[in-house]
Specification:
- There is one protein chain.
- The protein has 2 domains: 114 residues, Winged helix-like DNA-binding domain superfamily/Winged helix DNA-binding domain (Arc Repressor Mutant, subunit A, Orthogonal Bundle); 31 residues.
- Helices cover 52% and strands 4% of the residues.
- The chain has 9 helices and 2 strands, in the order αααββαααααα.
- α1 packs across α2 and α4 crosses α7.
- It is elongated and about 70 Å long.
- 21% of the residues are buried.
Length: 201
């Protein structure tokens, strides 16, 4: 449901190769579509289609003549991966409606009124999950992919996720201990023990 298409993967890999090869704006360097295809593990024709889209939308510059090829139009640190994913995955911008449109199902008018019941709740949950999915890509740029020295922010992504999971588990344990009661300095729930900080005169 939230898996990237091959086109999106190729687009990101082409941009990453430009960064690693130093093919940035004003660098005088460029990579060929054949090189991009080899790096992405795809055919030259398939890579050319993706490159054409990136050129058309202003992410890549096509350089003609001897030593020509493609290069980034802006610094890699300014190219958010989320923007590239949204470009290559238009259904992500449409949420659940896009999922239906690209699923091969017959087209149906999208209702103007808000969904109710389980279907509406699932739609809202799906949109929220999709937003969280894309927000991870929004936090990183092509420059992060080009960093192969071991100091990449992506290298510690699992560490961050592990910390979040540990925090969620600790919160769940605390809620079980408190019996889901909410304690505040101003008031305590009926039947609960009021907890207040010690105040020294």
């Amino acid at each position: 449901m939230m898996r990237l298409t091959r086109q999106a993967e190729i687009a990101v890999q082409v941009l990453a190769l430009c960064e690693r090869s130093g093919a940035g704006p004003g660098s005088g360097r460029a990579i060929t579509t054949r090189q991009a295809a080899g790096f992405a593990g795809t055919t030259k024709d398939h890579a050319a289609q993706v490159v054409a889209r990136l050129v058309r939308d202003g992410w890549l510059e096509s350089v003609r003549g001897r030593g020509g090829g493609i290069r980034l139009t802006r610094p890699a640190s300014e190219i958010r991966l989320g923007a590239i994913i949204r470009l290559m995955e238009p259904s992500f911008n449409d949420g659940v409606q896009g999922e239906q449109r690209h699923s091969g199902w017959p087209e149906e008018p999208w209702p103007e009124t808000e969904h109710v019941g389980a279907t509406g709740e699932f739609d809202a949950l799906h949109r929220s999950a999709l937003g969280s999915f894309l927000s991870v890509f929004d936090d990183f740029t092509v420059a992060d992919l080009g960093n192969v020295s071991g100091g990449s922010r992506i290298g510690c992504l699992d560490c961050d996720l592990h910390a979040i999971v540990q925090q969620m588990r600790a919160t769940a344990r605390l809620r079980r201990r408190l019996g889901h009661r909410q304690l505040s300095p101003d008031a305590a729930a009926p039947g609960s023990t009021r907890i207040s900080p010690d105040i020294n005169p």
